From TrEMBL:
Identification of the protein by name: Peptidase A1 domain-containing protein
Membrane-traversing stretches: none
UniProt keyword list: Aspartyl protease, Glycoprotein, Hydrolase, Protease, Signal
PROSITE patterns membership: PEPTIDASE_A1, TAT
Signal peptide boundaries: 1-31
PANTHER family referenced in this protein's UniProt entry, alphabetically: ASPARTYL PROTEASES, EUKARYOTIC ASPARTYL PROTEASE FAMILY PROTEIN
GO biological process, one term: proteolysis
SUPFAM superfamilies, alphabetized: Acid proteases
GO MF terms held by the record: aspartic-type endopeptidase activity
Top-level taxon: Eukaryota
Active-site residues from the entry: D104, D320
Family per similarity comment: Belongs to the peptidase A1 family.
InterPro entries (alphabetical): Aspartic_peptidase_A1, Pepsin-like_plant, PEPTIDASE_A1, Peptidase_aspartic_dom_sf, TAT_signal, TAXi_C, TAXi_N
Length: 494
């Protein structure tokens, strides 16, 4: 990243330091919020072969950006990315206008494409009508100037050569060449507040966000385009942090992504039912890092060297719903795969667009073992065969785990746990207490959240969003496969 990009991005991620300091004295948080979230990559229709490639390409770009964020000295804060698996509808401005934004737990700011944007897509391959934000069309919007407190707090003081009415800018350049640049705006955000059981009403809060004036690389493409990105990272610049600082919500959110019936829940607030066990978040890390202690396959603990579980620069375990698959260090990947296929050494493998696939006519849940990841404070993540395998045609299954060393040199020692293993689980991010937790759950049902200001407990039901939520693969995918015998698999894993 260029020095100027680093400086301006630092501005974005440190922007609300003063507001966060005030938040400790803010009144108790009010009702919870809820977003209707949809999957970006639809399950049915379209070019299924393209989808499987697109998901892997998405992870490749995102993986590199997560690492780029970790490598930068930005006070332990993350970066936005160009694609997210899930998107939601928000409303900005007065009168409010609708925007579709990618939901991303690895991002720290909200930004939308601006009316003055150069190379911003006007149409989306997702079939959505895109909207460019126009600051002049909103009676409640105002540009953040470089001599205002927001910008001064961002840069640690008034900027040199800053004069009145000059906008406070932001700029991000990513490792794959994508970029976004623009200026900060403060305007009204409208969101759904839970007020009674299964009922919401519009809530409003003033938030500061980026107005994207120029996009480059993938961000300028219309193929999977949306209006912007809604970050749910830990930084003070995130909408979650801003709403918490304003006393609107607790700094807690949860998601439950259903791959069975197509429903899902994404809620802000204190989840009281179901209860979840938690593990501490690693302090001073740019993402949702946790301490992985051991892995067992079918109840047998893998004998792995201690260094594979260490947290540090370019090491450790990240929970990230914005990544599709799960990436393991090469040594861990090989040991896991050997244990998974220990009783199936006669299986013939196919290489399908770099995924290991095989034919199996029975139930994978009956024929293969459960993989369990054990975390600090005795929190377990159970990954069942139907979650680490995905169907790909007539009795064809492919492995969803990936060898991280083949994706990124810098990421070869990182465990990156994505949507594949987080689906069908209620995942709670409790930033108030710096813990994260989960439990297996029917994500097409409901959860209960507590309004900490009134003490009331409300039911939040799953949104029957569409079959687009479902993590499936089109059955007509043409298998561009090369048959390999088991001895070749052994050569890969040993």
């Amino acid at each position: 990243m260029a020095p100027r990009a680093s400086l301006l991005l630092a501005a974005a991620v440190f922007a609300l330091a003063a507001v966060a300091a005030w938040s400790a004295s803010a009144p108790g948080a009010a009702a919870t919020g809820v977003f209707q979230v949809r999957r970006k990559f639809p399950a049915g229709g379209g070019d299924a072969g393209g989808n499987i490639s697109a998901l892997r390409a998405h992870d490749g770009r995102r993986h590199g950006r997560l690492l780029a964020a970790a490598d930068l000295s930005l006070g332990g804060l993350g970066l936005p990315t160009d694609t997210g698996l899930y998107f939601t509808e928000i409303k900005l401005g007065t009168p409010p206008k609708r925007y579709y934004v990618q939901v991303d737990t690895g991002s720290d700011i909200l930004w939308v494409n601006c009316i003055s944007c150069d190379r911003c897509p006007r149409k989306s391959g997702l079939g959505l009508d895109l909207t460019l934000y126009d600051p002049k069309a909103s009676s409640s919007g105002s540009t953040v100037s470089c001599d205002q407190g927001f910008c001064a707090a961002t840069y640690g003081g008034k900027l040199p050569r800053c004069t009145a009415n000059v906008p406070c800018e932001y700029s991000v350049v990513y490792g794959d060449g994508s970029s976004t640049a623009g200026f900060f705006i403060t305007d009204a955000l409208q969101f759904d507040q839970v007020t009674e059981n299964v009922q919401t009403q519009p809530g409003n809060s003033s938030v500061t966000f980026g107005c994207g004036a120029q996009q480059g690389g993938d961000l300028g493409s219309s193929n999977q385009a949306l209006d912007g990105i809604l970050g749910f990272g830990q930084a003070n610049t995130s909408v979650l942090s801003q709403l918490a600082a304003a006393g609107k919500v607790k700094k807690i959110f949860a998601h439950c992504l259903d791959t069975v019936k197509g429903g899902g829940i994404f809620a802000i607030g204190n989840v009281v039912q179901p209860k979840v066990k938690t593990t501490p978040l690693v302090a001073d890390m740019p993402h949702y890092n946790v301490n992985l202690k051991s892995i067992d396959v079918g109840g047998t603990t893998l004998q792995l060297p201690a260094h594979v579980f260490e947290t540090g620069e370019k090491k450790g375990t990240i929970i990230d719903s914005g990544t599709t698959l799960t990436y393991l260090p090469e040594l861990v990947f090989k040991e896991v795969m050997l244990a998974v296929f220990n009783k199936h050494q006669d299986v013939t493998f196919h290489n399908v667009q770099d995924f290991l696939c095989f034919q199996y006519s029975g139930s994978v849940d009956d024929g293969f073992p459960t993989i369990t990841f054990h975390f600090e404070d005795d929190l377990a993540l159970h990954v069942y065969p139907h979650e680490y395998f995905f169907p790909n045609g007539n009795d064809i299954y492919c492995v969803g785990f990936q060898n991280g060393a083949l994706q990124s040199k810098d990421g070869k020692d990182i465990v990156l746990m994505g949507d594949l293993v987080l689906s069908n689980k209620l995942v709670v991010y409790d930033l108030e207490n710096q813990v994260i937790g989960w439990t297996d759950y029917n994500c097409s049902s409901s959860i209960k959240v507590k309004d900490d200001k009134t003490g009331a407990i409300y039911t939040v039901i799953a949104h029957d969003i569409s079959s687009g939520w479902r993590f499936q693969w089109h059955k007509s995918l043409i298998l561009l496969s090369v048959t390999v015998v088991f001895s070749y698999l052994i050569s890969l894993f040993v």
